[in-house]
Amino acid sequence: MCGRSQFLRLPEIIEAYGPARVGDVVEAALAEEAFPRSVVPGLVLHKGVRVVSSFVWAFFDGGTGHNARLETASDRPAWRDAYASTRLVLPLACFVEGRAWFADSTGRPLAVAGLYRLGAPPPTDGSGGGGGGSARRATMLTRPADDVVAPFHYRMPVILPSDLIGPWLAGAAVPVGRLLGDAPPLSSEPLTRPGPPPPDQLTLL
Which of 15, 47, 50, 185 has its C-alpha lying 20 to 30 A from 160's C-alpha? Predict the structure, then answer.
């Protein structure tokens, strides 16, 4: 399950997904290489305007829930309200599954579908707020792996096609079949530097 990613920086997010305004984000607090409970940037729609905000990458108050299955997110009590009304895009450069990094083979950013919970801005020291429940929180949606990722892991992030970014942010009906099947051509690179062991996660509910 995706638990390590490199996120775009603010200017890259605006260039890729703007026009958008920057909300209450402290760029120095954002984790460029993020793990569960890191502070990460997310793109949301607020009163019809795209806004970049910061989120703790862990949906639940105990610091768990960095991933959620797309196939059940609209029905499961843990996710269904957020699926209906509080969606975001997590702007990634690349992500890890198994023992490899994956990125768009053309170098384009990856618009990963996610859900969020309202709360206070995350701490500005980049700590992610530990297990406290007050911070704004997000989870990344996952799907079955495509042919490139499958040799390394059975799941991967849901990468939104460009024409579905707007409807996704607006909470509109989006064809789940496309989210499960459409993905840009990905390239893989062996993981040479290990990260910390993943925390115990109640993730794929």
Answer: 47
Answer whether 92's CB lies under 8 Å from 112's CB. Answer: yes
φ, ψ of residue 133 in degrees (nearest 5):
-100, 0
**Six token digits for residue 164:** 């579905």
107 part of a folded domain: yes
| SS3 assignment, position 2 | coil
How many angstroms separate the first and last alpha carbons of the chain? Answer: 12
Find the CATH number of the domain harbouring 11.
3.90.1680.10
In a domain, 179, yes or no: yes
pLDDT in tens, 125-164: 666 654 555 889 999 999 999 999 999 999 999 999 999 9
Q: What angle do CA 123, 96, 148 make, to 5 degrees?
A: 150
* 187 vs 10: CA distance, rounded Å: 24
Q: Which domain holds residue 169?
A: 5-190
d(CA 183, CA 143): 11
Residues 150 and 60: their CA atoms lie apart, in Å, by 28
Is-cis flag, bond preceding 19, omega within 30? yes
pLDDT above 90 covers what percent of the chain?
77
